[in-house]
Amino acid sequence: MAVASLHVSTHPLVLQRLCILRDVATPPPLFRAAVADLAMLLAIEATADLPLTETSVTTPMGIARGSALVQRIALVPILRAGLGMVESTLRLLPNAQVWHLGAYRDHASLQPVMYYNHLPQHPELDLCLVLDPMLATGGSAVAAVDALRSHGIPQIKFIGLIGAPEGVHTLATAHPDVPIHLAALDEHLTPPPLLADDPPEGYIVPGLGDAGDRQFGTG
Predict the structure, then answer these.
(1) What are the chain's domains?
(2) pLDDT by residue (tens digit) across 81-91?
(3) Which of 199, 136, 143, 197 is nearest to 168 (CA)?
(4) Which residues contact 7 (CB under 8 A, 6 or more apart)?
(5) Minimal CA–CA distance to 71: which of 92, 52, 48, 57?
């Protein structure tokens, strides 16, 4: 699909970790490790355009010119699945703040329910990275960006692992200026179930199942 704000990684290490995530036989410890690795790899790609300022450091052999980040950044994981993406991203951006938003999808309406919002009242930031493994319907992502916009955040990027065309379209339509960074864009969302054994509605196909359950062993 042609969406200007969408960036799907083709990095070999991203594709290899993605295969681990999809495998139904991957146990929670390996699943969590793959989520962390992917978050770091995607964060590297998502931050490739960060502005820099010139600086200098003293080496054992003299003075070297270098670069320093100038933007004030916050990581915003969407609870609970986004938690697994924080630590490795924070290693790349150790001075970043970490904010939290809690949202779940109502399985009847497929609409997001925001149950936790712990954003500063008067943030002084330049960029927020929203972290959520799955961009399915896109409702939670839009709600998160809406909340950040209401707090005056000037620049927002979304980092996810797997997205569905429906979710990408929803987020890109609501917020066309928010770059979307994914490891994979999958086929579609599951339709409403017709039989008792059918999967629930609104899950990404082929996807990886429920990212929160698989990270924390609650599935």
Answers:
(1) 6-46+74-216 (3.40.50.2020)
(2) 899 999 999 99
(3) 136
(4) 45, 46, 179, 180, 181, 182
(5) 52
**pTM (two decimals):** 0.90
Q: What is the pLDDT of residues 205-217, one digit of tens each?
A: 999 988 888 888 8
Task: Tell whether the torsion through CA atoms of 146, 151, 156 and 158 is positive or negative.
Answer: negative
Q: Which two tokens mark 30?
A: 């390996």
pLDDT tens digits for range 154-181? 899 999 999 999 999 999 999 999 999 9
Tokens of 180: 């979307």
The answer to whether the CB of 159 falls within 8 A of the CB of 5 is no
Q: Characterize the bridge pairing of strands 127-131 and 73-79.
A: parallel
Tell me how crowded residue 121 is: count the other CB atoms within 10 A of its CB.
5
* Helical spans, DSSP H, in 47-164: 86-92, 139-150
